[in-house]
Amino acid sequence: MANISIGVIGAGLIGRKHIKKAIEHPDFELAGIADLDRDAVSAQYPGIAVFGDYRSLLDQARPQAVIIASPNQSHASIGIECARLGIDMLIEKPVTDTLESAADLLLEVRANKVRTLVGHHRRHHDQVKTLRRLLGDGLIGNLVGVSAIWAAYKPDDYFRIAPWRTQSGGGPILINLIHEIDFLRYTAGEIRGVSAISSSRQRQFPVEDTAGALLEFDAGCIGTVFASDSAVSPWTTEQGVGEAAEFPFSGESSYRFVGSRGSLEFPSLVHWAQADGGQNWNRPIQSQRLFASSIDPYRAQLDHFRDVVLGKAESLLTVEDGARTLIATLAVAEAAASGRRIDLDDRYEALAAGKYPPASQDTNPRKAS
Ligand SMILES: NC(=O)c1ccc[n+]([C@@H]2O[C@H](COP(=O)([O-])OP(=O)(O)OC[C@H]3O[C@@H](n4cnc5c(N)ncnc54)[C@H](O)[C@@H]3O)[C@@H](O)[C@H]2O)c1
């Protein structure tokens, strides 16, 4: 197979991970890196072309595809320029920082027919694929609801080195819950309505440290999700699947999917049911641990991006899909701030029509960070 020439834009925390995966991947050839801090990045990657401006990377190295791993605020403008040049893109999450810019990017992506993948890497875990298959096969009957928790204690340094994390948009809703929202959309179905409350009682920062949301899914399934960056717990997906060394493995499940014929914990994939598909609370219930392998989701994401670029696979998460995740996540923040239930259908429709915000929306959505 001919190697796909790829450029990486932004060589920070996640960009360096992508660079390592791209160098190791037999089907990609790293054409170059762009980062504002050209000298420091050059010193780290001797022998690789490093540009201080991403336009120079696009003009001179001419990659067939790029990974956009720069700060959120730059995703839309860089993505639009890549689309106009016909370059396929893996774009980090959140897809953009505002829904208006997501709609602009979507128009360019469509007009230029480029292929896109958004970096909610969690979709690529084997446990997630297995969960979707089990739910789709009806293992637990009709999906009635899902209960989720994401709770961890971020150290003081996390806020000291990046004070924007204490301000509006820097809290667990837009940093952490966005991954859970994407996961829930992927496994439980589209989110149609959102209600929420949030609190800043633990850290007393302007931004929330804790939030709870009530989610209404397609076909009437109900979800509750709790997120906090001020609580010590083993219940985050990161700890449950052990996807990164910085979040030590707990193996604990942070999700419970409940259905008319049984329940499933995630990521442990413990299945609870009564004998012979029984549905009676007076009868005993038994558990069985099902199996899915643990894989590197970043490598699996790159494998999938290769297949998307080569036209061998439909993207698991296009720019439009990533923008729908952003719509639902921003709605959690908006519902908590306003105390209102937010209906998402007209927002999805406006995005698809390239006319964001919808006429019915009187307030500006908050920025994602
Ligand atoms: N998928 C995930 O789990 C995950 C994890 C972390 C971050 N992210 C996302 O990845 C993106 C980057 O986050 P990070 O934590 O790596 O940030 P970071 O601050 O560590 O790195 C960003 C890098 O981009 C460079 N940069 C800034 N503007 C640029 C531009 N216009 N052109 C080229 N380079 C530019 C900076 O110099 C810096 O090196 C964000 O969108 C973030 O939300 C995703």
TrEMBL record:
Question: Per the database record, which ranges form the GFO/IDH/MocA-like oxidoreductase domain?
Answer: 129-265
SUPFAM superfamilies given in the database record: Glyceraldehyde-3-phosphate dehydrogenase-like, C-terminal domain, NAD(P)-binding Rossmann-fold domains
Residue ranges of every copy of the Gfo/Idh/MocA-like oxidoreductase N-terminal domain listed in the record: 4-120
Q: Which GO terms describe its molecular function?
A: nucleotide binding
Membrane-spanning residues: none
Recorded hits in PANTHER family, A to Z, give:
BILIVERDIN REDUCTASE A (PTHR43377), BLR3664 PROTEIN (PTHR43377:SF8)
Q: What is the name attached to this protein's record?
A: Oxidoreductase
